[in-house]
């Protein structure tokens, strides 16, 4: 079964409340309709309710089973403004500014997640990645287990011509530009957690470099080696190789020749890139030349899930990200069953 189908099946087994703040976009509405009809998620649409209904009617989208929340009329808005003020007053936000800001759908949607009125958020079909990430960090907050928020792509290699089959996690391909060794180790551990929940398999992490087992000497290699060392120290049971070149990470025969005492043995399902430059190039090569399906950019390291979309996304892309967000929310609920974020 394709990895994305396993994710969709898992989402259907225990659908979560996913808030979408771009309901005036036809792609979002079509994905929301599919998620509702297939039982993948319980959809909340935040925005101008009248405009959402008009666009849905124009697009032939049935809103039955979805909840529309208009910040201009919602009973939640006054308390949300107070909460936003409490969160941001030390950064200089006034109560009047909070009252204006909370009327913006992206802000309101993230507050719904923060205050447990929703389990996860998806945005980015209209908003920029910078806006999506900034609101998620400022309002939902960073998971105390991590020091930073990073991103990953879920890469699907499911076509007949793919010799390497299944799903892979590529990280970080969209957010942290030039991580130091500490940050790179945080990215690797978050990506391993993402693999465990989304690929439903034990993570096998390759810390990518232009060097394998010290074959090259350079500060860029030292960073990867140090990051891998820290991960081994903090996650002693995690299968991880680093520094390792891409071929030795995913081809068993090459790993056997080039990597001494390999824990991954050429079967990596998590590829951690040494920089955003390498990661961005890598995922686009896999997508455009290798024919992989790229789902993301997805965020990791938040207290609760909030995911980004490409502004060029299709309705299918949005549906897949909704399903991923549901599974992330399931994992968050299992990790913190009794804790309420406030």
From TrEMBL:
InterPro entries: P_Ac_Bu_trans, P_AcTrfase, P_AcTrfase_dom1, P_AcTrfase_dom2, Phos_Acetyltrans/Butyryltrans, PTA_PTB. This is Phosphate acetyltransferase. Its EC number is 2.3.1.8. Belongs to the phosphate acetyltransferase and butyryltransferase family. Signal peptide: none annotated. Residues 4-326 form the Phosphate acetyl/butaryl transferase domain. It comes from Crenobacter cavernae. SUPFAM superfamilies: Isocitrate/Isopropylmalate dehydrogenase-like. It holds the Pfam family PTA_PTB. It catalyses: acetyl-CoA + phosphate = acetyl phosphate + CoA. Keywords: Acyltransferase, Transferase. Coiled coil: none annotated. It is an enzyme of class 2 (transferase). Pathway: Metabolic intermediate biosynthesis; acetyl-CoA biosynthesis; acetyl-CoA from acetate: step 2/2. One of its GO terms (molecular function) is phosphate acetyltransferase activity.
């Amino acid at each position: 079964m394709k990895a994305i189908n396993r994710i969709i099946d898992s989402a259907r087994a225990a659908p979560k409340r996913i808030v979408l703040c771009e309901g005036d976009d036809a792609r979002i509405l079509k994905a929301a309709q599919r998620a509702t009809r297939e039982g993948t998620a319980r959809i909340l649409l935040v925005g101008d309710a009248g405009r959402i209904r008009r666009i849905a009617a124009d697009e032939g989208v049935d809103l039955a089973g979805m909840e529309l929340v208009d910040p201009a009329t919602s009973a939640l808005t006054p308390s949300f403004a107070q909460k936003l003020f409490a969160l941001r007053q030390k950064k200089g936000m006034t109560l009047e500014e909070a009252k204006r800001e909370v009327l913006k759908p992206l802000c309101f949607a993230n507050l719904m997640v923060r205050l447990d009125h929703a389990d996860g958020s998806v945005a980015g079909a209209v908003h920029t990645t910078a806006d999506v990430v900034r609101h998620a960090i400022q309002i939902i907050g960073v998971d105390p287990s991590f020091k930073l928020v990073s991103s990953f792509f879920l890469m699907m290699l499911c076509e007949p011509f793919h010799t390497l089959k299944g799903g892979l996690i590529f990280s970080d391909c969209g957010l942290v530009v030039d991580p130091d060794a500490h940050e790179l180790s945080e990215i690797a551990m978050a990506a391993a957690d993402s693999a465990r929940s989304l690929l439903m398999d034990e993570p096998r992490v390759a810390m990518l470099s232009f060097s394998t087992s010290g074959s090259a000497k350079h500060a860029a290699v030292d960073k990867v080696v140090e990051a891998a060392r820290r991960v081994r120290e903090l996650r002693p049971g995690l299968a991880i190789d680093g520094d390792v070149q891409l071929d030795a990470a995913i081809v068993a025969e090459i790993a056997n020749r080039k990597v001494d005492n390999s824990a991954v043995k050429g079967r990596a399902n998590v590829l951690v890139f040494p920089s955003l430059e390498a990661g961005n190039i890598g995922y686009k090569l896999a997508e455009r030349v290798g024919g992989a399906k790229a789902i993301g950019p997805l965020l990791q390291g938040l207290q609760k899930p909030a995911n980004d979309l490409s502004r060029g996304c299709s309705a299918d892309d949005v549906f897949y990200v909704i399903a991923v967000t549901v599974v992330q929310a399931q994992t968050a609920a299992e990790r913190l069953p009794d804790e309420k974020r406030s």
